[in-house]
Design goal:
The complex is a heterodimer.
Chain A (H helix, E strand, L loop, with lengths): L5 H27 L15 H6 L5 H6 L2 H35 L2 H16 L2 H12 L4 H8 L13 H25 L3 H9 L4 H12 L1 H17 L2 H6 L7 H10 L4 H28 L7
Helix pairs in contact in A: 1-14, 4-8, 4-11, 5-8, 6-8, 8-11, 9-10, 11-14, 13-14
Chain B lengths: L1 H34 L17 H8 L1 H32 L7 H13 L2 H15 L5 H25 L3 H9 L4 H30 L2 H6 L7 H11 L3 H34 L1
The chains are: A mainly alpha, B mainly alpha.
């Protein structure tokens, strides 16, 4: 391979991601600064100078921080934080068992059983919970059958259902990076801690957890970002009041026909995500770890 | 002396039970979904006997079959384009002196981490600005954008385990750059390329979020069709089509994992 021509190999990537990724993002930013037209679409700007000096170009952003929209934003943030915390709490022990306790010959199978859901259609994994949680679904039949309740619980189309769906959907994205860092853990350090008199609990919190911090950080990033922007789970499992940021954005483009407002919301979401990623990259660099995502 | 040992055993047991419970949590919902796709009863929470009826009905559902054809076409084109583009990039990124290397790596990272809803909205804005009609073409473009990065990631991992001496030897023996690539480099990275192709196919055929923004009339893909079915309600037909999609994904992913494992163990040997 000629050394001088190497950049030619990158040309298709630059073209595709430039034209269909960077340019669209710039257009969306521009769109977010404009206003919706009377009949949908985008309103013309008769006097650019006045438009800028009056601050109208920030109108969509101002609107997104007021009233019901602020509420939706906070709820989305809260749901994403909760999902991340729950998947971490549930997933860490599983990754630990998988990396440090599972018998060697079972390891591939057990790992595969987490990897497959990782790649499996989110849509179908969400539908599985629609199927289980609805009023005449299996969960209610079991509860009624055992006499735990005397009439079916309304779980589907509630915030609880959204939470279950999110934790279920995101769990593999937490377990896999945790597993990767627990697998690399130098076990002699745990022995050293034991030799120096550390109990199980203190060696776990003072050796294992700090050493697997990069895996925890990666898991948090991998779960938090999709949870913050998702709309499928809340659309299918949530009720009318479970609208989250992702649904709101999708709604502005598909139904409400207020694309400038949708664009502003999309940009706020992206800004939040990029801030988190920058913090993550900075953290990993300080730890001397390679930023792998 | 017995205290800590039995405490350890006890904590191990709790860990094992928790892990088993989580595996059930991950797999029981999918399993139940699949089992009930073979159920005779329409009122689907009670088992009434085995049937393949719902699968037969799928075959008679014209709209669904059209969506399957669209999805297969999109996934095939996306796989071809993304695999070629991503592999070329991975080859270029191997050399530290390649111009724009750092920028390209950052650029490739972004589509993987940006929320899908943002990518969908941005692409819809672009297609609107260009006056492009939403069609299978716009769907393929969108799918290529979000999958190129995965190809580069997987192929780069494979290239990292490659012994440069093999390519040098080929050149010393008089092979030109193209011949070296075709007869040495490509066969060596092939498992990685094939694995990434399978992953891209899976990503493309499963995608709902981005596709929902950029598909138009007549370019409904399978996930879009399934979504419209299950917004109406839970039916055994949806279970059947979900089960087929799940089975397909599992086959593709297991094959991709095998290929990647082959590539990493060979990489260790060299």
């Amino acid at each position: 391979m000629r050394r001088r021509g190497t950049w030619l190999l990158l040309l298709p990537t630059w073209l595709v991601l430039g034209m269909f990724f960077l340019v669209p993002l710039v257009l969306t930013l521009v769109l977010s600064l404009r206003q919706r037209g009377v009949y949908g679409g985008v309103a013309p700007i008769p006097d650019l100078g006045a438009y800028v000096t009056s601050g109208s170009f920030l109108g969509n952003y101002a609107r997104s921080f007021a009233g019901i929209y602020a509420g939706i934003g906070w709820r989305s943030l809260w749901m994403a934080v909760l999902t991340t915390a729950l998947t971490l709490a549930i997933g860490y022990p599983v990754a630990y068992a998988l990396a440090l306790r599972a018998p060697r010959r079972w390891k591939d199978l057990l790992l595969g059983l987490v990897v497959v859901p990782f790649w499996t259609s989110f849509l179908i994994r969400t539908y599985a919970w629609m199927f289980l949680l609805r009023t005449e679904g299996l969960v209610n039949r079991l509860l009624l059958g055992t006499g735990a309740v005397d009439r079916p619980l309304e779980i589907l189309y509630t915030e609880l259902a959204v939470m279950i769906g999110l934790v279920y959907g995101e769990l593999p994205f937490m377990i896999l990076p945790l597993y990767a860092s627990l697998e690399k853990l130098d076990r002699t350090l745990l022995e050293a801690a034991a030799d120096l008199g550390a109990g199980r609990v203190s060696s776990f919190w003072r050796v294992t957890v700090p050493l697997t911090a990069p895996g925890i950080a990666a898991g948090i990033v991998l779960v938090f970002i999709p949870s913050l922007g998702q709309f499928v789970v809340s659309d299918l499992l949530g009720g009318a009041r479970s609208m989250l940021l992702g649904n709101l954005i999708q709604n502005q483009f598909a139904v409400a026909r207020n694309q400038p407002f949708g664009a502003a919301l999309a940009f706020e979401l992206m800004a939040a995500v990029l801030l988190l990623l920058l913090a993550y990259a900075f953290y990993m660099k300080r730890k001397g770890e390679e930023v792998l995502l | 002396m017995n205290g800590p040992v039995s405490a350890g055993r006890w904590s191990r047991r709790v860990l094992a039970v928790h892990t088993a419970f989580i595996y059930l949590f991950l797999w029981v919902p999918i399993g139940v979904l699949a089992v009930f796709s073979f159920n005779t009863g329409r009122q689907t929470a009670v088992w009434r006997g085995f049937t393949l009826d719902w699968y037969h009905r799928l075959l008679a559902n014209e709209a669904l079959l059209a969506a399957v054809r669209n999805s297969l076409l999109v996934a095939a084109l996306t796989t071809l384009l993304a695999t070629v583009i991503g592999t070329l990039a991975a080859l270029a990124l191997r050399r530290p002196e390649t111009p724009g290397r750092g920028g390209t790596l950052a650029l490739l990272l972004l589509p993987m981490v940006i929320p899908e809803v943002v990518l969908g909205a941005a692409l819809l804005t672009l297609f609107g600005a260009l006056g492009l009609r939403l069609s299978l073409t716009t769907v393929v473009i969108a799918h290529v954008v979000f999958s190129v990065s995965y190809v580069t990631l997987v192929v780069r991992a494979r290239l990292a385990g490659l012994d440069p001496a093999l390519e040098e030897a080929a050149r010393d023996l008089g092979a030109g750059p193209f011949e070296t690539f075709r007869r040495v480099t490509l066969p060596l990275i092939f498992p990685g390329v094939a694995a990434s192709a399978l992953l891209v196919f899976t990503l493309s055929i499963d995608d709902y979020v981005v596709t929902s923004f950029v598909a138009g009339v007549g370019s409904t893909t399978l996930p879009l069709h399934v979504y419209s079915m299950l917004r109406v309600g839970v039916t055994p037909e949806v279970n059947a089509v979900s089960t087929l999609l799940l089975a397909g994904t599992i086959v593709l992913i297991v094959a991709a994992q095998r290929l990647m494992r082959v590539s990493s163990s060979e990489g260790d040997r060299t």
